Amino acid sequence: MPDPYNPEHPDEPGDEEAAMLRFLAQFGITPDAEGRIDPDQVMARMQPMLAAFNTQLAGFGSADATSGMNWGFTLDLVRRATAAAGPDPEPSDAVKARIRDAVGLADLWLDEAISFDRLTAPPAAWRRAEWVEQSYPTWQRLMRPVINQLSVALQGLNAGAEQPAGVDQMMRLAVASMFGGRVSQTLSTLAAAVLSGSDSGLPVTDQAHVALVPVNIEAFGTGLDASPDDLLLYLAIRETARQRLFGTVAWLGPQLLALVEHYAREITVDADSLADAIEAQMTSITNAADLERAGEAVARSLFAPQRTAEQGEVLARLENLLALVEGWVDEVTAQVTEPRMPAATPLTEMVRRRRASGGPAETALRDLVGLELRPRRTRDAANLWAATRAARGIDGRDAVWAHPDLVPDASALDDPLGFASSDRQAAPDALDDELAKLLDQENGPDQA
Predict the structure, then answer these.
(1) Which phi and psi angles does 291 have, rounded to 5°?
(2) What does the domain layout of the chain look like in residue ranges?
(3) What is the average per-residue pLDDT within 220-233?
(4) Three-class SS state of 250
(5) What is the pTM of this model?
């Protein structure tokens, strides 16, 4: 069975074909005396497993035609892993009332400190399971480019080899299921750690919505030198400010997600590591349940270590924008809490330590889309927003968010006083004037 990948020794299988033969051998499928694989033997061995697995998947909707990823099945894995991570009780009426009161007070204070309107949706107390349901569509969107790259890598591994019928489908199902297992572990870990809906720094829900996760807040507050009420109010202020920003600045959330997607589209899956991981994991797979448990080792081998120049540029823009968002939240939170909450200073330091040490959100982005994200300049951004408020007032500071071209870049973070004293907020007005002139010329004098 000559292998085009091994032209110097045409009678010996190349690395890719040898890996495929070892994979098939796990199912009792071996070449005949002439080195050929009997397709009937392959299907006889694989059909029962494929049929059982496809039957299992069918209850969760159809899979992606190219990648084999069944998003409904993966969501079920996340749900089960989240349920197994620990107690996730329904918040009591008393807890819900405390959250409503905390968000109500946060809104009252923020009305004096920011120019963005309150949200119309009432605040929510989410279980971990609710955070999963609300955020999963966004994680699915961010992971889809990676799944597509996985499919491309698998096609590259199998290119040029004589594959028996059903092997390609089996490989796609296996890798999709392995990755699905990794997704379930990553998102369930994140669900057990997030304190609020946008605690990851990304807008993971379609609509801006203030939501806190009381079971996680209670666990996080254990050992902190702060009362539960102070901690809840402080987190409610931060989440309310962030969601009011996302809710008013229409371009901000979509651009953050688009940058993550752009980075993920440029990912190169390390095909050699993927092939080694598949081979290593296949030795223990005999049924559909085993496929699910093989995910972590394979997922760790997915991403090539090198980063492209384009990914580096996207990463820099994303880190800058996230730093500006969190720096703005820091600034307005300090503005409203310092004169009112004695506990604000230690709570602020607690947030900074949590951010500096990294966390589940950064781990999730690394494991699911290969993104090593550390917005290192959040404190610089907070200083810039404070300087801008001092120079231009609250409305002038928040007007910077009116257009992406007005948002400070890395050089502005180096010189916050220079940025604050500049007059960049005039740019959109000039642009709007020019557009209006062009429209008037196009419509003519007789048209409104």
Answers:
(1) -60, -40
(2) 65-369
(3) 93
(4) coil
(5) 0.79
